[in-house]
Amino acid sequence: IVNLGYESDPNLGQGISFYTATTSHWRHLRVPCEPVEVDYICGAAIMFRVEMIRLVGTFDECFFLMCEDSDICFRARKSGYRVCFVPGPGVLHLMSQTTNRYSPLATFLGTRNWIWLVRRHGALGQCIVFSLRSFFYFYPKAVLGRIFRRQFDLLSPLLRGIWQGYRKYPGPYRCTTQYADFPTG
User: Fold this and answer.
1) What is the per-residue pLDDT across 138-150, written as a single tens digit (0 to 9) for each?
2) pLDDT of residue 68
3) Contact 81, 104 (CB under 8 A)
């Protein structure tokens, strides 16, 4: 993926730290010639095997707009599939065009969905470290940052995202649709 927006570097896949709730782009000096395993692939350029969809289901609607690609990749990995960057033609991605990077919606969904992602796929130790780091470092810093930058419209979505992330966690993915009638081949 070549992001067109605030990031213009090629994105060859992502790495995730559940301890810090951060992603990192997998970067090399040159594009690899063979598939390379990554933690997840951005939904703008993701492809699935039909068999995988039948086994793990589709995108979880609870994660609407953010972290849904990470969630399905981690569910696929837990089911025995590999998540790989496959070299080939690229995709131009208009980064942050669905929501502005600093919009109330992006603030709310980003905060809530990261909490849900860590709770769903992180190990117990990762969830504990993430929560402690968030409550004692990240959330106070985020609140103070919004106040100092006079982004008062982002305070309520941030606090709502934290609240819903911990109090309204949807739990494990529950597939509600049968995928047996998906076409094969």
Assistant:
1) 999 999 999 999 9
2) 92
3) no
Q: At 71, which amino acid appears?
A: D
Bridge partners for 16 per DSSP: 23
Say if residue 26's pLDDT is above 80. Answer: no
Give the separation between CA 91 and CA 108, rounded to whole angstroms. 27
Q: What is the pLDDT at residue 85?
A: 83
DSSP3 helix / strand / coil % (the chain, rounded to 5):
45, 10, 45
Per-position DSSP letters for 129-167, written without gaps between them:
HHHHHIIIIIHHHHHHHHHHTT-GGGHHHHHHHHHHHHH
Helix, strand, or coil (residue 53)? helix
Please name which of 49, 36, 114 lies closest in space to residue 79, comparing C-alpha atoms: 49
Residues across the chain: 185
Q: What is the largest CA-CA distance in the chain?
A: 55
Summarize pLDDT for 95-111 with one digit per residue, the tens. Answer: 555 555 678 998 999 99
| Torsion sign (Cα): 41, 43, 48, 53 | positive
Q: How many alpha carbons lie under 13 Å from residue 90 in its C-beta half-sphere?
A: 12
| Chain centroid offset of residue 56 CA | 17
**Tokens for 46?**
């993701």
Contact (Cβ atoms closer than 8 angstroms) between residue 75 and residue 62: no
